[in-house]
Amino acid sequence: MRKAKAEAHQKRITVVSNSPGETQRLGMWVGRHLRPGDVVCLKGEMGSGKTLFTRGIATGVGVPQGRGVRSPTFTLVHEYVGQYPMYHLDLYRIQGEEELEGIGWEEYLYGAGITVIEAAEKMMEVRLPEDRLDIVLERDGVRRRRLTLVGHGRHFESLVTALVKQHQ
Ligand SMILES: Nc1ncnc2c1ncn2[C@@H]1O[C@H](COP(=O)(O)OP(=O)(O)OP(=O)(O)O)[C@@H](O)[C@H]1O
Ligand SMILES: [Mg+2]
User: Whose C-alpha lies nearest to ligand 1, atom 17?
Assistant: First the structure.
C-alpha cells in the first residue's frame, strides 16, 4: 500500500523549451505552486536560462515587476516581495563558502520565504534542505534548452507529478 502510494509520485521530468518565453512560463508555473519556506536550486552553464527562469518564478509568486528580476551582480542576494517574501541568491561569483556566512544564508534557506538559488553547485549539498526542487538547465542550440526538474520530498514530488500530468 505504502509502496503504491510512493510510486504514484514522480520525482523527475525533463521539459524542452524552445524559446526564452517558454522557459519563463515554466518558471511561472513553478512559482505559482511554491509555498513559504520552499527552496529551488538551479544549476546550469552560463546563458542556460537560470535568471530567466527565476524571473518566471517571481512572476508566479506574485512579485510586481517580476520581469525586473536580473542577476544580482554585486550583491549575492536580492529580496522581493510577492504573495510571500522571495529571495534570489546567485552564487556564481562567490569565492568561498565564508561569503555565505556573511549574508546569513541559513535565514534564507531555512526561513519562511521562498528561496531560489542560482549556481547552487557552489554550495555544499549538506547545507541545502533535504526537501527541495532541483533544476538542471542545459543548452541545446541557440534557442533550445532542456530543463530537468527533480523533486525531493512529498511536496516537490507532487509538484513534479502535476507537471508530468500536464505534459502527457
Ligand atoms: N529557450 C530558452 N530559454 C531560456 N533562455 C534562452 C532560450 N533561448 C535563448 N535564450 C537566451 O539565453 C539567455 C539566458 O540568459 P540567463 O541570464 O537567463 O542565463 P543564466 O543561466 O542566468 O546565465 P548566467 O550563468 O550568466 O547567470 C538569454 O539571453 C535568453 O534570451
Ligand atoms: Mg544568471
Answer: 51
Q: How is the chain split into domains, by residue range?
A: 15-147
Q: What is the pLDDT of residues 23-56, one digit of tens each?
A: 999 999 999 999 999 999 999 999 999 999 999 9
Does the beta carbon of 111 lie inside 6 Å of ligand 1?
no
Distance (Å) from CA 5 to ligand 2 centroid: 37
CATH code, 15-147: 3.40.50.300
Smallest CA-to-CA distance from 97 within 128, 60, 64 is with 128
Model-level pTM?
0.93
| Angle formed by the axes of helices 50-61 and 20-32, nearest 10° | 40
CA 151 to centroid of ligand 2, rounded, Å: 22
> Which residue ranges in the chain fall short of pLDDT 50?
1-4, 6
Quote the CA–CA distance of 60 and 28 in Å, as a whole number.
Answer: 4
Verify whether ligand 1 is closer than 6 Å to residue 115 (CB atom). Answer: no
DSSP β-bridge partners for residue 115: 39, 87
